[in-house]
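Thread amino acids onto this structure.
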């Protein structure tokens, strides 16, 4: 990958969309930017397009929009108009598909606007998907599960590697990996993270637990006791330490003769028998029972 291309990838959405206006020479300032006049629907320019001529992006990864936030944006648009244009691609005569800005489009409809300012761009289906995903990822209020799902879609549908994905969204590989690992959590935990009942910090602590059953148990403790991330990390560490203590020291394997005795006792009493013996020949026999009747049965066999 060339240095120029890698630099462009790191710019994210702006690199995909390029600049939205053309540069015209100016006697006083050669860097002054202004919009080139063009017909409605002209490529690379800002145009007023009728809202009923715009269809939503079929590749839009976001499915949930906060109704209260939309209403607030709609009220703002009624007073001041839409400040930031949406971006569309032309799909036919007087027919456009939204590339980015669905929230602004929805709020403009709520505000009763008939037309809306829009950049008209050329984009194929893959670029449409990539633009929509990157715009979503760069939103501050996107929850961690939405980000993770967007990352996974970029990997699957754009055939990217994690390093390339990191370049596209200006994040390092470890950050991308941490988000993708969230999708391995049980669905109930993912829903809690999506709904804001737990945070990314809670989720990262739960990821370190390999057993999904234990993950769900710890998750329930977080919800029930309103545990902080720090308390959650302590709880998980303590549980893992106890597990290591229980499993750390394995008993010495039984000799063939002792194993044979243990098996014969188990057969005689019709239950699992545990026989322990140390190197000095001392030990114990453990005969578990399932109920009082089962205990009486074993005692009768012992002529108790």
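Threaded sequence (304 positions):
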């Amino acid at each position: 990958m060339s240095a120029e291309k890698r630099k462009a990838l790191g710019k994210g959405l702006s690199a995909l969309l390029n600049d939205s206006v053309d540069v015209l020479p100016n006697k006083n300032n050669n860097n002054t930017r202004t919009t080139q006049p063009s017909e409605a629907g002209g490529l690379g320019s800002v145009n007023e397009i009728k809202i009923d001529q715009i269809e939503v992006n079929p590749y839009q990864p976001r499915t949930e929009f906060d109704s209260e936030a939309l209403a607030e944006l709609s009220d703002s648009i009624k007073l001041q108009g839409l400040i930031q244009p949406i971006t569309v691609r032309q799909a036919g005569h007087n027919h456009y598909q939204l590339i980015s800005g669905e929230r602004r489009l929805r709020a403009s409809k709520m505000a009763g606007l008939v037309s809306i300012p829009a950049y008209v761009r050329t984009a194929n289906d893959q670029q449409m998907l990539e633009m929509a995903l990157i715009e979503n990822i760069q939103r501050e209020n996107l929850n961690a599960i939405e980000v993770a799902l967007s990352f996974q879609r970029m990997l699957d549908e754009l055939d990217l590697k994690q390093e390339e994905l990191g370049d596209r969204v200006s994040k390092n590989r470890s950050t991308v990996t941490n988000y993708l690992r969230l999708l391995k959590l049980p669905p109930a935990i993912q829903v809690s993270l999506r709904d804001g009942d737990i945070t990314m910090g809670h989720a990262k602590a739960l990821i370190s637990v390999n057993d999904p059953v234990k993950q769900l148990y710890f998750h329930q403790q977080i919800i029930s006791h309103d545990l902080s991330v720090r308390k959650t990390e302590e709880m998980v560490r303590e549980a893992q330490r106890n597990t290591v203590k229980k499993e750390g020291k394995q008993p010495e394997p039984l000799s063939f003769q002792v194993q044979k005795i243990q098996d014969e006792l188990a057969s005689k009493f019709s239950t699992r028998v545990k026989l322990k013996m140390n190197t000095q020949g001392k030990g114990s026999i453990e005969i578990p029972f399932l109920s009082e009747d089962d205990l009486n049965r074993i005692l009768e066999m012992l002529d108790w």
